[in-house]
C-alpha cells in the first residue's frame, strides 16, 4: 500500500479547493467594484448627493470664484487672457468635497492610498471599492495618470497621478499634463487639482505652483480638448496660504500674495 499517496492526496485536494475559493472570491470582488462604479456613475445627481461622504458640506462650481476675482496683473509672465481667467479657480478647502467631473489624486506608484491627500481621497470615496479598482490598473509610473470612478465622492471620477520626489520640474509638468490629457480624452469639463508633490515628496511650494500654473496655461492654449473645459480648480492648503501671507503681509488680502507671484493667465 502506498502510504505516501494516502497522506498527500487529501492535502492536494485541500490546496485545490482553497485555490478555487480564492479565485471565486477575487473575481466576485472585481465584479462587485464594477457594479458599484456603474451604480454611482449612473445615478441621478440628486440621489448621489445623498451618498456623499461629506454630507451636505460640498462645493459646486457656482460656489467657487474664478481666477479673475482674485488675480492682479502686476508683472505677469504671460499676457493676461480674461477668457482663460474664467476657466481657472483657486480653492482653499477639502478637495474631496468639490462637485466636479474629476478630482486629481496625488498618488503613489502602487495606487494604494498610502498617506496624505491620497489616503483622504481613498477613505472618502469608499476605500474598499476604490482599492479593488486600483488593483486592476497595474500601478502608475511617475509623470503619468490613471482614472477610476469617484464612488462616494461628489466628483464623478478620480484621476490618479504620480508626482516626482524632490524638485523635478519636467516630471511634475508631465504629471499635470497627463491628468489634463486624460480629462480631455474622457471629454470631462471640470477638474480639481491638489498640490502635487509638495507634501512628503518635498517639492517647494512656490516652485510647484509655478510649474502647475504654467502647465495649465500652456495646455489651455494648445490642446484641442480645451474648448470643452468649463473649469480647472487648484486646491491649496491653509499652510501654503499662511506661509505666503507672512512673506508679503502688507497686502490686505492673504490670497493675493500667492496669486500675484504666479499670475500666468
From TrEMBL:
A single Pfam family it belongs to is Macro
According to the UniProt entry, its GO molecular function terms are: ADP-ribosylglutamate hydrolase activity
**All residue ranges annotated as the Macro domain in the record:** 75-265
- What is one term from the GO cellular component aspect held by the record? nucleoplasm
Cited SUPFAM superfamilies: Macro domain-like
Concerning InterPro entries, the annotation shows: Macro_dom, Macro_dom-like
Q: What's an example GO BP annotation here?
A: DNA damage response
Kindly provide the name given to this protein in its UniProt entry: Macro domain-containing protein
Q: Which organism is it from?
A: Medioppia subpectinata
- Lineage of the source organism? Eukaryota, Metazoa, Ecdysozoa, Arthropoda, Chelicerata
Amino acid at each position: 500500500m502506498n502510504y505516501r499517496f494516502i497522506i498527500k492526496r487529501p492535502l492536494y485536494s485541500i490546496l485545490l479547493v482553497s485555490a478555487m475559493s480564492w479565485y471565486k472570491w477575487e473575481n466576485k470582488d472585481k465584479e462587485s467594484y464594477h457594479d458599484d462604479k456603474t451604480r454611482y456613475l449612473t445615478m441621478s445627481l440628486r440621489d448621489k448627493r445623498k451618498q456623499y461622504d461629506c454630507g451636505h458640506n460640498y462645493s459646486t462650481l457656482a460656489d467657487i470664484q474664478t481666477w479673475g476675482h482674485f488675480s492682479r496683473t502686476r508683472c505677469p509672465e504671460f499676457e493676461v487672457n480674461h477668457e482663460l481667467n474664467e476657466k481657472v479657480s483657486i480653492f482653499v478647502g477639502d478637495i474631496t468635497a468639490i462637485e466636479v467631473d474629476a478630482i486629481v489624486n496625488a498618488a503613489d506608484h502602487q495606487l494604494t492610498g498610502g498617506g496624505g491627500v491620497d489616503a483622504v481621497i481613498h477613505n472618502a470615496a469608499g476605500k474598499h471599492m476604490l482599492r479593488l479598482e486600483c488593483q486592476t490598473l497595474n500601478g502608475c509610473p511617475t509623470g503619468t495618470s490613471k482614472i477610476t470612478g469617484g464612488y462616494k465622492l461628489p466628483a464623478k471620477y478620480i484621476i490618479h497621478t504620480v508626482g516626482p520626489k524632490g524638485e523635478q520640474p519636467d516630471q511634475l509638468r508631465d504629471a499635470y499634463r497627463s491628468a489634463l490629457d486624460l480629462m480631455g480624452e474622457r471629454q470631462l469639463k471640470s477638474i480639481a487639482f491638489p498640490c502635487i508633490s509638495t507634501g512628503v515628496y518635498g517639492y517647494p511650494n512656490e516652485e510647484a505652483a509655478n510649474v502647475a500654473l504654467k502647465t495649465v496655461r500652456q495646455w489651455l492654449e494648445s490642446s484641442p480638448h480645451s474648448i470643452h473645459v468649463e473649469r480647472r480648480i487648484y486646491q491649496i492648503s491653509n499652510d501654503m496660504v499662511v506661509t505666503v501671507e507672512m512673506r508679503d503681509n502688507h497686502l490686505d488680502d492673504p490670497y493675493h500674495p500667492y496669486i500675484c507671484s504666479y499670475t500666468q493667465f
